[in-house]
Amino acid sequence: MIRLKHKVKFLNAVCGALLVVTLGAILPGCLGHSTDQGQLPPHPRLILTPSHVDQVKARLSSSELMQELHAFQLAMADTLEAAPLITYRKTGRRLLGTSRHYLKRMLYLGYAYQLTGAKKYAIKAEKEMVTAAGFESWNPSHFLDVAEMTTALSIGYDWCYPALSDAAKAKIRTAIFEKGIRPSFIEPKHWWHTTDNNWGQVCHTGMAFGAWAIYEHWPDTAQLVIDRSRAGIRVPASAYAPSGAYPEGPMYWEYGTSYHALFIDAHETLYGDTHPLEVSEAFESTADFFLHVHGPAAAFNWGDGGPRHYFSATQFWFAQRQRDTALLYLQMPLLRDILDGKRTLKALSHGQRLFPMTITWLSRLQGDGVEVPSQRSWFAGGKCPVAFHRTSWAPGGMFLAVKGGSANVSHAHMDAGQFVLDAHGIRWAYDLGGHNYEALEKEGLDIWGKHQQSDRWKIFRYNNKSHNTLVVNGQLQRVEGKCEIIENIVSPGYRASKVDMTPAFRHQLDSVVRTVAIVGEDHFLIKDYLQNLDTAASNVRWAFLTYDSIKFLSSRMATIHKEDHLMQVEIKQPVGSRLQTYSAQPDLLPYEPPNEGFVMLGFELELEPGASETLEIHLTPAKK
């Protein structure tokens, strides 16, 4: 037995040394500059520390909202405590769903154990974690799976630590090291080390959580991982520059930014002011982006994200950090709907897996009230320039959003110039969002290539033919063309943004400039100035995606009907144009879902060589 223990210690030492050497090759200059902070605090040490538990309990005594939220979380934990153990299940090339189930369960069960002391929650968490520790791997070929599983087991191990058996602790921490941290060095492809998208945020956070959880057992390797994550997470932080807009849209904001916030919160909880972590002004400003990106009907979704209101526990983290309750103006009603059962959160799905963090971050705010945001327009440049305008923050107010950017950003579509419109709580100019990845990959389509001829652009939902922009001679927008918002105007009765769309139509048109505006509180304006090339005539289709309940009043005027409301669409220029509908059905059925209930509404015009034209369309909301 003694000899075996010596062998285990020797092997662990060798493994640690090998990881040090490997890291030196991956991140030259990292070695020799350790930010070693010495011994970390005892478990639990990851965010929900004893002092934070006390803080939650103190707020529970004075807040009815906190009491309701606490009861909700315990009910979810009870459901999960009685549920069958999670099993290993891959979907296509991903284990991601399984990892996400684990994270959700560890957060609920760990919270319930810490707040109540009831060991049944820790016992169930232990059984789940020991099962995951026994998996052959956590699927390092798709490293998000490893990162989320490592985050899950690190939280479960840390939050339930006092009640775990010694045998279980050994199995869990060894799995975190062997199946989580080790593959982050020895797998051949580690592009996420230096990427600026959500992969960098999720993977670096997951590895750091693993290192913090098992620090005392592999301190040298753990410290190297922490140093690597501290350096690596600065790269995706740069994607928020200059003003906080997230290039991948609100759905991936909720994913990447949430993990980023977990990293910052855990780091600051562990080290405080002794080893401060630099957080950029642009990252702090992204809370405003997430507030303003939501219209009355849904978020302005672009790229692979869907059109809905996004609840995010992370917005509560920003609100308590900035002491700004206006950031929660649209989140509090969603939270209320969840607690009242109007918005369903299912315990046995992996959706909203970070919801249990809401109560921890809400507990740091004083009071449950929220302020009305003061700004009604917000815009930002960067990798994906965006602008949002509204007449008010009332549910029935008018909302207009537009984007520039390019198709060469992670999860992007060919949608430069895309706009959405809300009025009377209805989205009239729509974006279908993304497509199920596994379904397309199963058919052998390369949906991740970004070159001009990639399979990705065969998908209707990904190319410009389904978006609220232009199609010239039936061609695709140019992948490499990045479009900027060149002017924003906010004045009494007029809120507008101007997008130079020319780069997206290189070799198709000489110049394309789009202006979108809310005029008074009366109507929306979309105005495009087009200048054709000198070499050939061009056919231009102007269209936007909307509902198929359309009544044509004349060649240039139609009304779209939805519920008890309508939107009147009128072509002001060119005078000779005729409104018509275009199919919103995809070209690759059955690979793509039918977009039932939708059509493209628009018109076409012919531009002679060297000719210019102004397109002006008014959209006026009204009641039936």
What are the salient characteristics of this protein?
Glycosyltransferase, 8-stranded antiparallel sheet, alpha+beta, 2 domains, Beta-galactosidase, Chain A, domain 5, single chain, 624 residues
Structure summary:
The chain has 624 residues and is of the alpha+beta class.
Task: Please tell me about this protein's structure.
It is a single chain. Helix 4 packs parallel to helix 6 (143-159). The protein has 2 domains: 2-26 and 42-345 and 356-362, Chondroitin AC/alginate lyase (Glycosyltransferase), CATH 1.50.10.100; 377-623, Distorted Sandwich (Beta-galactosidase, Chain A, domain 5). It has an 8-stranded antiparallel beta sheet, with no helix packed on it. Strands 1-2-3-4-5 form a 5-stranded antiparallel beta sheet, with helices on one face. It has a 4-stranded antiparallel beta sheet with strand order 6-11-16-15, with no helix packed on it. The protein contains 17 helices and 17 strands. With 624 residues, the chain is an alpha+beta fold. It starts with a helix and ends with a strand.
